[in-house]
Amino acid sequence: MQRAAHWLLMMATIPILALLVACGDIEPGTDAVSTAGGEQNTGSELPCSDCHTLEAALDPLLINDAGSAGKHTTHVETLQFQCESCHADYYWDDLHINGRLDTAVVGAEIVRFDENNPDGSWTGDTGPQTGSCANLYCHGGVSQPDWYATETLGCTNCHSSGSALDPGGGGSAGKHDTHVNGTHAAANGFACEACHNAYTSQATHVNFQPDAGDPAVTIVNFSRPNTAGSWTGDTGPQTGSCANVYCHGGVSQPAWYATETLGCTSCHTSGSALDPEGRPGCTTCHSSGSANNLEGVGGLHELPLLWEHH
After folding, report:
1. Distance between CA atoms of residues 60 and 218, nearest Å
2. Are 70 and 127 in contact (CB under 8 A)?
3. Which of 28, 27, 49, 26 is nearest to 38 (CA)?
């Protein structure tokens, strides 16, 4: 009878020991991309941070944070992604809290995207520190960013031509083609930061909600030499104009979605910062076919190079 009671006590203790091991109290793990911790199969779900902040060995923000170690810092702290965005339903999976490190196991489905990325997948995983995201809306649906790459992604990595996030267009679709691909004001085209300064650090960036049609979201924020410039007249989709920008003379307010093409006097108006009064007419130096024609030539009228794509 005494032996049976001892056996029952041991059996009752095993689940408790298993939980402690899983959360790192007895045997710390280094499961960098596991995203949850707690009691399995009990109907209750603890926040991921309850176990994954107990100690450094379990914290993905410390051991899978940036550069060649991973990209949790960017996605969790900067972009404020929830764990479930990239590890959907992993909490209750048999792989979770199983006493084995899942990140080093090829074929272990730790990365599973939620409803925001139904076609997304994890690819190229051949072992520790390998793997890329594929077919994700938040990366334009075409790029496959390496989770362990050391380089920093630029705007065009996600907003590439032909992607789901391609901002290109002309006429009533906007004026990105004119500004990005080169104008006489900036022969190499304006850099994204010229009109979207510091936008990538905003909470609304990469939040699965298109910001361009929301007047409450500030997408346009000008850098030098247009720090006094502003975006005005935005009342919803396909509305809005630039105001008080040097490249348009400081007085013109060109509508971003207008269908007409601007002429010289649209920016070089009397009294503007670009007023040519007292100087030769435009065509004197910029006649069609000349070396200084207005198509793709910056010359003396070039804006500061910090504005340009290189």
Report:
1. 31
2. no
3. 49
Judging by beta carbons within 10 Å of its beta carbon (0-12, 13-18, 19+), is residue 186 exposed, middle or buried? buried
pLDDT band at 40 (very low <50, low <70, confident <90, very high): very low
> Does residue 107 contact residue 36 with C-beta atoms inside 8 Å?
no
With H, G, I as helix, E, B as strand and everything else as coil, classify residue 241. Answer: strand
Q: What contacts 225, CB < 8 A, 6 or more positions away? A: 246, 303, 304
Tokens of 41: 């199969």
| Dist CA 185 CA 305 (whole Å) | 11
Give the tokens for residue 294: 């207005």
Does pLDDT of 66 surpass 80? yes
| Region class of 107: left (phi > 0), else alpha (psi between -120 and 50), else beta | left
DSSP bridge partners of 133 = 122
Give pLDDT tens digits for 69-114: 999 998 998 888 999 999 998 888 888 888 777 877 888 889 999 9
Look up residue 14 and give its two tokens. Answer: 């095993």
pLDDT tens digit sequence for 23-39: 444 333 333 333 333 34
Task: Go through the chain and tell me how many residues it has.
Answer: 310
pTM: 0.66
Q: Whole-angstrom Cα distance, residue 70 to residue 146?
A: 9
